[in-house]
Design a protein that fits this description.
about 25% helix; 7-stranded mixed beta sheet; elongated; alpha+beta; 42 strands; 19 helices
């Protein structure tokens, strides 16, 4: 929302300087985004051309002698065809920045003749697009005085960032009302008197869609003389970025910004019959004032006559009935349009206008009739003519404009306001009388007894955003001044080192760090995948299909992170990066309920992207990735998330998208699945249009049990044994189906205190160990704690290890 300082002072009687006005606007919630104080035009002065002689080296140039009013005349080389002796125009001296050509002048040398400045055109000063000649001022223009002041171009322009809940501030009058309420001056009465008319309006209005049009006012003015609007009106419109068109259109634009009341004018001779406000019919089109044809739908409201559609309601008029220089009879329209319907129509058609901007936020319903009276008054004053009586039609109420009844057109909302609410919500101590005075200055009227703890206020028609007592607190606070709120430190809710992140947030962060440390790069893939991919990874349920997918291949919520990561790895390979390791920590979906959304961490490795190196090397090429790379990644992520890795079990095999013989499932206990890993099934890769070698893993962070609460966060004491550690090797013959992990667990369980580690270092299969058997060799690390162990101690421990392994796996010590 833009306006000039002089425009504001039409409605606000104040002596406050520009800086104070700008500061107060921001303090009361109308944040100032930009102020153009017109400093760029200050260096330009009015100057008179004394002589104009032909340039000795150029036929189209002249050498001027210019009186700038500051002393001796200066020499200027000029190419304007209208340059002549006696002309008075705008002069720029060397060192002046000329905005229209984005140049800072210096003393120039043009074809051998020095030029000390320039005489400017309107385009060079950004006053218009006129560049056929330099500015030609009247003979009485005062030479030597600032050109901006003479041409009324020194009026500062203020631009505020208007929030959607303040439609009343979409007009200069509403902004002046707020400033006056804040004590920055006196609001000048903006009452609009009725303009007497002669006879009834011959054009009648029928509202067939009262839910879209709560009110409609129309008036005919005969015998107008349309043409350029007065200079003062043009200057104001140009200052805020509007292009003057003709007097009738400029009047409607002026009232739109002055009072926040959009209007429209029809050329009465181009309107056939009466006007009908209705919904558009399927297939109807309209040629709008912007020269574009729009296809309409039945959800849109239009104004039509016997010829068809003449206007898109609340957004833009039609080209066929628009006013021009030949207009002699004009129909002025002031209507109310449903905000939601206006917003939907504008969004659907892609039209953004000043009228739509205001109607979709909610205009003042009580200013519908005064708005047409004001427009009539300005049309008669600037264009002449004789008006008819207004035709006023009221429709049904809407939620944004209030309930429309009778000629007044509005039922006012009433709010019971406990005065103590201001202190409770803001901490401000504001007295009863000051509170009531602030609200009265803003237009809120106290009703009934005003001496109690609660006062009932009537909300003004121009404030559709005020719905409850908290809104009244906001009004009091912003006008009284948020700077009156004493700063106070926030109370500490707990210890300084109190926990902030949830367990799931901590684990998500830790999993990311652990996988990044292992040389994997984080990827962010789509949460939507094709139906075929979803089914391939256990998804495809009807409740997980999108009602409005953004693309045909993004139809389902992902049941796993792996399809997106495999596709990303393949895209890298297609572009020459075959050896890549990617991971992602995000959500997967097993259903459409909150508890069916899970937090997972997954990763894939492709080619030779192993943790210990990749690619070709003179000392030996890296091996392709495999199942054990994926297992190591999964266990590292689980360990970083706090899973008890020493108690985890790994079972052979996994979901169907893995290779059945090169995959595994990580469990905690017999039922809790914490993750899966392995090399991917060839059919899976074929369905995803990917090629290997590819391995990956997926762990479920939310399945990891919560750690037990500890009485203290202090780290446990470090206990180091002074006794020598010992390692003993054992080789057991077991059935080929026995997993090595079960054997190591059995050996470790022989003595939890002495045995600190068990590691498999050899696996052998052959005739010497029997058909269907295998030999597993393990290294057992033994750390004495209390004393040095004797041979008898080691023999007893070895016997317990052999006994445990035999009992739990059926293995026998290999001879």
């Amino acid at each position: 929302m833009k306006f000039t300082l002089s425009w504001l002072k039409d409605h606000l009687e104040t002596d406050a300087p520009l800086a104070q006005i700008v500061d107060r606007l921001t303090m009361i919630g109308l944040e100032v985004e930009h102020v153009d104080d017109k400093a760029a035009l200050k260096p330009f002065v009015i100057a008179r051309v004394l002589t104009a002689d032909k340039h000795p080296q150029a036929d189209r140039l002249q050498v001027l002698t210019v009186d700038t009013g500051s002393g001796d005349p200066v020499q200027v080389v000029c190419g304007a065809p209208n340059a002549r002796a006696g002309l008075i125009g705008a002069f720029a001296a060397p060192g002046t920045y000329v905005p229209g050509i984005d140049v800072t002048l210096s003393v120039g040398n043009i074809r051998g003749v020095e030029s000390h400045g320039m005489m400017c055109s309107e385009r060079e000063l950004q006053l218009s697009d006129e560049h056929s000649g330099i500015i030609d001022l009247p003979a009485d223009a005062p030479v030597g005085t600032p050109f901006a002041a003479y041409a009324h171009l020194d009026d500062p322009v203020i631009e505020i960032n208007l929030t959607p809940n303040r439609p009343d501030a979409a007009g200069v009058y509403g902004i002046a009302r707020d400033l006056a309420a804040a004590g920055l001056g006196r609001l000048i009465d903006g009452h609009v008197g009725a303009v007497p008319g002669q006879g009834a309006c011959p054009v009648k209005v029928t509202v067939e869609a009262p839910d879209l049009c709560p009110g409609f006012a129309l008036r005919l003015v005969r015998g107008v003389k349309n043409g350029p609007s007065p200079k003062w009106l043009q200057r104001r419109l140009i200052a805020i970025g509007q292009r003057p068109i003709n007097a009738l259109v400029d009047i409607t634009n002026y009232i739109t910004f002055d009072r926040g009341r959009p209007l429209h004018v029809f050329d009465a001779k181009k309107v056939a019959g009466n006007l009908v406000v209705r919904r558009a019919r399927e297939g109807e089109t309209v040629l709008a004032l912007d020269g574009r044809e729009y296809a309409l739908t039945p959800e849109m409201c239009v104004i039509a006559d016997d010829n068809g559609i003449e206007s898109i309601a609340g957004i833009m008029g039609g080209e066929l009935s628009g006013s021009d220089e030949g207009t002699t009879d004009v129909l002025i329209e002031s209507a109310l349009w449903d905000p939601l319907a206006t917003a939907r129509t504008g969004r659907a058609l892609g039209i953004i206008t000043d009228a739509r901007y205001r109607f979709e936020r909610g205009v003042d319903p009580e200013f519908m009739v005064p708005g047409i009276e004001l427009a009539t008054k300005m049309v008669v004053e600037l264009c002449g003519g004789s008006p008819s009586e207004p035709e006023i039609v009221l429709g049904n109420p809407t939620s944004a404009t209030g309930e429309l009844v009778g000629r007044s057109g509005h039922h006012y909302r009433e709010i019971d306001f406990p005065l103590s609410e201001t202190r409770r919500l803001t901490g401000l101590e504001i007295g009863r009388e000051e509170t009531i005075a602030i609200l009265e200055r803003l237009g809120f009227t106290p009703k009934g007894d005003r001496s109690g703890e609660t006062v009932r206020f009537v909300v003004p028609s121009w404030r559709p955003d005020v719905e409850g007592k908290a809104d009244l607190v906001e009004e009091v606070m912003r006008i009284a001044g948020v700077d009156r709120i004493a700063p106070r430190p926030l109370a500490s809710p707990g210890a300084v080192n109190g926990r902030i992140l949830t367990t799931l947030q901590v684990r998500t962060r830790d999993a990311r760090r652990a996988l990044a440390v292992r040389g994997m790069m984080e990827a962010v893939t789509w949460s939507f995948i094709p139906d075929a991919h979803a089914r391939l990874f256990g998804g495809g349920r009807p409740e997980l299909k999108l009602a409005n997918p953004i693309a045909a291949d993004m139809s389902d919520m992902r049941p796993s992170l792996l399809p997106g990561l495999i596709a990303a790895a393949q895209r890298n390979a297609d572009r020459g990066f075959a050896d890549v390791a990617l991971f992602e920590v995000s959500g997967i979906y097993e259903g459409d309920t909150p508890d069916a959304q899970r937090r997972a961490a997954a990763g894939v490795r492709r080619g030779t992207a192993r943790m210990d190196g990749q690619g070709r090397h003179w000392a030996g090429n890296a091996a392709p990735v495999g199942v054990f790379d994926a297992k190591a990644d999964a266990l590292a992520a689980l360990e970083a998330c706090g899973a008890p890795v020493d108690r985890l079990g790994v079972e052979a095999g996994g979901p169907g998208w893995y290779h059945p013989g090169r995959s595994g499932t990580i469990k905690l206990g017999p039922k809790t699945v914490l993750g899966t890993f392995g090399e991917f099934h060839p059919k899976t890769l074929e369905a995803l249009d990917a090629a290997g070698p590819l391995c990956g893993f997926e762990i479920f962070i939310d399945a990891i049990p919560e750690p037990r609460a500890k009485p203290t966060r202090t780290r446990p004491r470090l206990d180091l044994s002074p006794f020598q550690a010992v390692k003993r090797d054992f080789a057991f013959v077991v059935d080929r189906a026995v997993e090595a992990a079960s054997l190591t667990r059995a050996a470790a369980a022989a003595d939890r205190k002495l045995i600190t580690g068990v590691r498999v270092f050899d696996v052998f299969e052959g005739a010497s160990v029997g058909s269907g058997n295998k030999s597993i060799a393990i290294e057992v690390a033994i750390q004495p704690v209390e004393r040095t162990l004797t041979d008898e101690d080691f023999e007893a421990l070895a016997a317990r290890i052999v006994e445990n392994v035999a009992k739990q796996t059926g293995g026998v010590l290999r001879g």
